[in-house]
Specification:
The protein has 405 residues and is an all-alpha fold. It is 73% helix and 0% strand. α1 (10-37) packs parallel to α6, α2 (43-65) runs antiparallel to α13 and α11 packs antiparallel against α12.
Length: 405
């Protein structure tokens, strides 16, 4: 296991700046579209629909476009997707009064076009790391993502309320365009030899790793359910709904701390075993959150859930690297991103249905049951394959000096 000090290099810093510029717009988008149309008649309902369309676009883009990224042309393909996403965000910002159908098309494009960048950027980080640095590198990435998701809502609200309703969209467009330009300071792609797939197509290779994708979806299903039902739960417990913001900020902070701790040392057990243990621990924390009667207990349980949740996200990526040959890593990361988005969307639908027929606490417990069911299905799939994980190379592909030309 490496130390975080080893990641303090110019290439990793450059990657970090590009990743932040690409991911902040993604974290801003759902809330930003709500602010964009909230003053129109039925604005909040329209905003919710646009946010859902954006997420659907993300899932479709990651699943369909991500596996089509070619290692030797990755820079141009990722830049094209980010530029198209920037154009879509700019369209939303410049045409806030457009017909809802046009806004929906732009929202879908803003989600779909840049979606492959999630897996592509992780792959570009991977090219900068040795095998023993992978867990630390993924922990660092998780901390970065936690910071982005903690800051993005406040940034969105500030721009929308202090400047203009369309300002977050234009900020997102500018950042995404900057990230596309920033790709030219990163490696132009990565090495990948399809021979390591043993003659299998990319589709069959990805399907062989379906238990890892189910786990990724399960993790986001549980997380999203806890977030979406939190305001209703606070109201049920007699606490002010305004506590939702600080509690979710504490969750994000704990998640960043958890990622930092995970990257400090080597932990016993294979990644998929660690992941199962961690996701079950998160389930326990969320169950406690649903059952405790007072705000302090809810806050403590949600914070602990965040602490362990980051480990779930890190181990799922490590497990995916084991389950897939190197030539399929980039596509696998994109499909994992799509699975996580699908899990979040499933949770949004599930929470809406459960809240119409049950109390918030019962809705959360129902989500825990669904999550544990998905984990059980994933575990059965792992055992059913009867195969050892694909061996990772001793030293992953590193880009030569010419790769940055």
């Amino acid at each position: 296991m490496s130390s975080y000090r080893e990641l303090a290099t110019r290439p990793v810093l450059a990657w970090s700046l590009v990743a932040v510029a690409a991911r902040v717009p993604v974290a801003m988008a759902p809330l930003a579209v709500v602010f964009l149309v909230r003053e129109r008649p039925g604005g909040y309902g329209l905003g919710a629909v646009l946010a859902a369309v954006y997420v659907i676009g993300e899932v479709a883009g990651a699943a369909l476009l991500g596996p089509r990224i070619k290692p030797e042309r990755a820079r141009w393909q990722l830049a094209a997707g980010l530029a198209a996403g920037a154009a879509a965000f700019a369209g939303l910002g410049l045409l806030p009064g457009a017909h809802p159908v046009l806004l929906g098309v732009l929202a879908a494009l803003a989600g779909a076009a840049p979606a492959p960048a999630a897996g592509g950027l992780r792959m570009l980080l991977q090219t900068q790391l040795s095998e023993r640095q992978m867990a630390t590198g993924f922990s660092y990435e998780s901390m970065l993502n936690s910071a982005i998701w903690a800051v993005a809502p406040a940034l969105t609200a500030t721009f929308a309320l202090q400047l203009a309703a369309y300002a977050p969209q234009l900020l997102a467009a500018g950042l995404m365009l900057a990230s596309a330009a920033g790709l030219w300071v990163l490696p132009k792609g990565w090495d990948a030899d399809a021979a390591d797939r043993g003659g299998k197509s990319m589709r069959r290779t990805l399907l062989s790793a379906w238990p890892a994708f189910v786990t990724g979806g399960a993790a986001m299903t549980l997380l999203a359910l806890a977030e979406l039902v939190l305001p209703a739960l606070l109201e049920q417990r007699g606490a002010a709904v305004g506590w939702s913001g600080p509690l979710l900020a504490a969750f994000a902070t704990a998640s960043a701390i958890g990622a930092f701790v995970y990257g400090l040392r080597t932990w016993p057990g294979r990644p998929h075993v660690q992941g199962r243990l961690l996701i079950c621990t998160v389930c326990v924390c969320v169950t406690v959150m649903a059952l405790v009667p007072a705000l302090p207990g809810i806050a403590a349980a949600l914070t602990l859930a965040g602490l362990f949740q980051s480990g779930v996200l890190i181990t799922r990526n490590l497990r995916l690297r084991e389950a897939l040959p190197p030539s399929a890593h980039a596509a696998g990361y994109s499909v994992m991103y799509a699975a996580a988005g699908a899990g979040y969307a499933l949770s949004a639908v599930l929470s809406g249905l459960l809240l119409t027929i049950a109390s918030p606490a019962t809705a959360i417990l129902g989500g825990v049951a669904v999550t544990l069911t998905l984990v059980a299905v994933s575990e059965l799939g792992e055992r059913g394959t009867g195969r050892a994980p694909a061996a990772a190379p001793a030293e992953p592909d590193r880009q030569t000096a010419e790769a940055c030309d």
